[in-house]
Amino acid sequence: MRLLLLLLVAASAVVRSDASANLGGVPGKRLKMQYATGPLLKFQICVSCGYRRVFEEYMRVISQRYPDIRIEGENYLPQPIYRHIASFLSVFKLVLIGLIIVGKDPFAFFGMQAPSIWQWGQENKVYACMMVFFLSNMIENQCMSTGAFEITLNDVPVWSKLESGHLPSMQQLVQILDNEMKLNVHMDSIPHHRS
User: What are phi and psi of 176, to 5 degrees?
Assistant: First the structure.
């Protein structure tokens, strides 16, 4: 039973870190193109939605086509209430699994009769622990999932999946960047008059 608890705790930590980690795999770390000095192209994406590979492919193509652009990527965090719910469920899951394994009846503490599902869980501890673990992880991941793929160039939004409902194609993104870069070059070449 202790081995099962240790495995579930370790798996929970791995799932939690994958669902809420920034793109670099280390909390707080961002992927950056080092050595670039031009405009900043920033991607804010939903890592738990599987957009990391899309980001990496876009980053590869864009860095080849526009070597002067700095590229950063980070996880687009959900609203604070959903982050708090996911954190609560993560702790509650571990407490519940611990109670199932130890065999303590939390309902007796409140003077209540244990429901039949608790009795089933005591008779089938392995299945009950797995069910709590996977159902909780499913809800946690749903709370942390935003579906976001937001792109800004020098803090000016150029694409939003939350607004458009879909990811930009590589051609769309290159066309947007071409237009923005031409506009920036044109604006820089206009002489500024002093009053």
Answer: -60, -45
pTM of the complete model beyond 0.85: no
Please name the helix (run of DSSP H) or strand (run of DSSP E) that holds residue 110, with its range, or none.
none
The per-residue pLDDT for range 131-156, each reduced to its tens digit, is 999 999 999 999 999 999 999 998 88
Per DSSP (E only), the strands in the chain are 31-32, 40-45, 70-75, 149-153, 156-160
Q: CB under 8 Å to 121, separation ≥6 — which residues?
A: 100, 128
Q: How confident is the model at residue 66 (pLDDT cuts 50, 70, 90)?
A: confident
31 within 8 A of 24, measured Cβ to Cβ: yes
How far apart are the C-alpha atoms of 15 and 58, rounded to whole Å?
A: 26
Q: What are phi and psi of 158, to 5 degrees?
A: -120, -20
